[in-house]
Specification:
The chain has about 200 residues and is α/β, with parallel strands linked by helices. It has one domain: 3-Layer(aba) Sandwich (Rossmann fold), CATH 3.40.50. Helices cover about 40% and strands about 20% of the residues. It contains six helices and eight strands; from the N terminus they run E-E-E-H-E-H-E-H-E-H-E-E-H-H. The protein has a four-stranded parallel sheet, sandwiched between helices. The structure holds 5-nitro-6-ribityl-amino-2,4(1H,3H)-pyrimidinedione (INI). 5-nitro-6-ribityl-amino-2,4(1H,3H)-pyrimidinedione (INI) binds near residues 37, 72 and 99.
Length: about 200
Amino acid sequence: MTKKNSNTGVRERSRFHGKAIEGGFNGAGKRFGIVVARFNAFITERLLQSAYDGFLRSGVKEKDIAIVRVPGAFELPSAARTLAETGKYNAILCIGCVLRGDTAHYDVIVNEVARGVGQAAQETGVPHSFGVLTCDTLEQAIDRAGLKMGNKGLEAALAAIEMANLTKAILGKKTAVGRSSLAVGKKQKPQAAERKKSLRAKRKR
Ligand code: INI
């Protein structure tokens, strides 16, 4: 149904008021893994601090947060995936900062990090949030690490909590925690080990 907006005079579709499944921001009882790149640490440490603070203020316990450091943004996806595959975490948060230089290096890294983190999330079933700044200048990065534009680390922490809760809401009792192959809480078998096992089984046949 459309309705005329009295301020703009434009006909707008009225807001949907039906029931939707959404994740909340209560992180109590949930476990999170943070993977943070050391490259551009001046920025990434500020993102990490704000993300950590966001988790604590949302009810996550310190003991339920694991912090893993990697050399640079390029290494974020593989470490994030390894953490997700342990089955111990409800969501993973990736933190990095890629600054544009004079070469194509920036584009190569940015594309790989975004693709890799997305793929880790989809293939493990564990939500991953993207706290990776991709900026042209250091000033833009500083603005997004606690100055003019807020702090992207905090935003990514809230997204991780929301997605952890959403996953639970969608899967119900079979939450991330109870899904047979992606169980949080139970140890997950890394895909490489599974592949080796099926190859061995094929060879025996
Ligand atoms: N890593 C970053 O996290 N940010 C950058 O801006 C960056 N630049 O510009 O080179 C960067 N490079 C390192 C890269 O992520 C890997 O750690 C390195 O190539 C080793 O694999």
